[in-house]
Write a structure and sequence with these properties.
Layout lengths: L27 H12 L10 H9 L2 H32 L3 H28 L3 H8 L1 H4 L1 H14 L11 H35 L4 H31 L6 H26 L8 H18 L49
Cofactor: Fe cation
Organism: Streptomyces composti
EC number: 1.17.4.1
Length: 342
């Protein structure tokens, strides 16, 4: 890949090249996001899953089915995200400040994968059950549908070496928006709702603890990606036309339907306080928030039906079931922006 020197610096964030110059800093906000992410270090070893084993034995068969499907999705979801980071985002976002953040994000995705690996080893002691969970994309239709959605909207950029044309940059934007708004901002937020539903009933405290930290990481990942979109909108406003708005709206609609198929699989005929209809309202509400944040018109007008998810909109989230605050930070010297709605 051509290296960009200080005398031939690109004009825009998506200009082809490989900018190396950190001084003078062109995108200091990306660098500050990297610094904030460093403060949020946590390890899987801090999550205590021992009490969850007893809780699992108390769950009804329908609830056990839900948990089995949920951890199967977790087993593959972050791997899709990590692959896209390496193969697409790092290659095309031409900012050394942004690449610092993306490097940190890749580390965090690896921690998430380790957490979900530990979760599966704890929740599914039978090796055959674990093998089936790791092969969920192949053998669980509702998870396969979500994966196919991801590949549909994201894979077309892999073959592009450089973003030379307007069409190339639009394809990259669709990849980034799918990555941030649909996968991290909708699929994972849907999964978090099931976890916090259990937590609201005093169950699966260890899962909730780890999810709190994953939630915080994913919120920061999404916010960074939206900042990249904002920067591109400022530098190349001609890319954000009616066609892009239609494509993004169609994408969010497809994501909601894929996640609803997953909800039907998980919830069956419905569980106390959790069913497909309430999940539909929640997903539509979240999708509208993502569209609004991206500068496009909302389409659903639904309200959040889950009061337990309102807890997730605050920066200092302390789970009363835990032995320590889940807003744990290393070397805190500032605040972390977690003002995205649930």
């Amino acid at each position: 890949m051509p290296v960009t020197t200080s005398t031939t610096r690109p004009q825009n964030l998506l200009d082809p090249g490989f900018e190396l110059t950190l001084r003078p800093m062109r995108y200091p906000d990306f660098y500050e996001r990297y610094r904030d992410a460093i403060k949020n270090t946590w390890t899987v070893e801090e999550v205590d899953l021992h009490s969850d084993v007893a809780d699992l034995a108390r769950l009804s068969p329908a609830e056990q089915h839900l948990i089995g499907r949920l951890v199967a999705f977790f087993a593959t979801g972050d791997s899709i995200v990590a692959n896209n980071l390496v193969l697409t985002l790092y290659k095309h976002i031409n900012s050394p400040e942004a690449r610092l953040y993306l490097s940190r994000q890749l580390f965090e995705e690896a921690v998430h994968v380790q957490f979900y690996l530990t979760l599966l080893d704890t929740y599914l002691p039978d090796p055959d059950d674990r093998a089936a969970a790791f092969a969920a994309v192949e053998n669980i239709p509702s998870i396969r549908e979500k994966a196919e959605f991801c590949f549909k909207w994201m894979d077309s950029v892999e073959e592009i070496d450089r973003l030379r044309t307007r069409a190339d940059r639009r394809r990259f934007l669709l990849n980034l928006i799918c990555f941030a708004a649909c996968i991290e901002g909708l699929f994972f937020y849907g999964a978090f709702a099931y976890v916090y539903w259990f937590r609201s009933r005093g169950l699966l405290h260890g899962l909730a603890t780890g999810t709190n930290w994953v939630f915080r990481d994913e919120t920061m990942h999404m916010s960074f990606a939206f900042d990249v979109v904002d920067t591109v909108r400022k530098e190349e406003p001609e890319l954000f036309d009616e066609e892009l708005g239609r494509q993004v709206t169609d994408m969010l609609r497809e994501a909601v339907e894929a996640e609803l198929q997953f909800a039907r699989d998980l919830c069956g005929d419905g569980l106390p306080g959790m069913n497909t209809e309430s999940m539909r309202q929640y997903l539509e509400c979240v999708a509208d928030q993502r569209l609004t944040r991206l500068g496009f018109a909302p389409v659903y007008g639904s309200e959040n039906p889950f009061s337990f998810m309102e807890l997730q909109g605050v920066q200092e989230l302390t789970n009363f079931f835990e032995r320590r605050p889940s807003a744990y930070q290393v070397a805190v010297e500032g605040t972390v922006d977690l003002d995205e709605d649930f």
